[in-house]
Backbone:
């Protein structure tokens, strides 16, 4: 069974940093691109970033470029999202997702809640 | 960015057909693929892939879900609607970055 389990969410002050992790199991992690998608409270889904199978290619939405970094450790079957210079508008649930064909997200974690507030 | 437009809500009677539409601000089709995908999200849960490449049923999804369309106009059909289908449905394009989602259509029962 494919499982994606996010961790690392919480309450953080504006301007500070947070690192999310996503532990993958039930599939060969290194064979799949991965993504982070967020959802602000009562709002819709918003793609944040994606990473290729080996980690050599990364892609970001404009609003997080230079602040967020997506990475992966294939030996540990884990995806990461380093979030720096956090803003109140980054408050959301962050989902880890597996890319099947690039752009299609065929498995999702349960989400990690991030609240940016003073 | 490609903007995807969905109606906010749709009310359907149990056992009837639900048709949810998604219109893209520019074509999301290539010569080979229609790069539109559909997800279901129930309250308090993570999204689930229903349909990929406009018309392909994802693994484990019941055949009463189907998708169609090309270019800029796409449709998700649920027939017949069951009580378990109460959810918000999102379209998403992968024709170009940034990947974008529609704002979601909330399916309600009449």
Residues:
């Amino acid at each position: 069974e494919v499982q994606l389990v996010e961790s690392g969410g919480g309450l953080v002050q504006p301007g500070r940093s947070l690192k999310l992790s996503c532990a993958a199991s039930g599939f060969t992690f290194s064979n799949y691109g991965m993504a982070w998608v967020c959802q602000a409270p009562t709002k819709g889904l918003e793609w944040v970033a994606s990473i290729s199978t080996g980690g050599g290619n990364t892609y970001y939405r404009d609003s997080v470029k230079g602040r967020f970094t997506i990475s992966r450790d294939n030996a540990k079957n884990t995806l990461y999202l380093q979030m720096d210079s956090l803003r109140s508008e980054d408050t959301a649930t962050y989902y880890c997702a597996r890319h099947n064909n690039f752009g299609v997200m065929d498995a999702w974690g349960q989400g990690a809640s991030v609240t940016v507030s003073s | 960015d490609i903007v995807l437009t969905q109606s906010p809500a749709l009310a359907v009677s149990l056992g009837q057909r639900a048709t949810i539409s998604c219109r893209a601000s520019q074509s999301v089709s290539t010569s080979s693929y229609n790069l539109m995908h559909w997800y279901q999200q129930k309250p308090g849960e993570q999204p689930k892939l229903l349909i990929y490449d406009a018309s392909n049923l994802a693994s484990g999804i019941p055949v009463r879900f189907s998708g169609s369309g090309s270019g800029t106009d796409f449709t998700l059909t649920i027939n017949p609607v069951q009580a378990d289908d109460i959810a918000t449905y999102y379209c998403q394009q992968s024709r170009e970055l940034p990947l974008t989602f529609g704002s979601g259509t909330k399916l309600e029962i009449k």
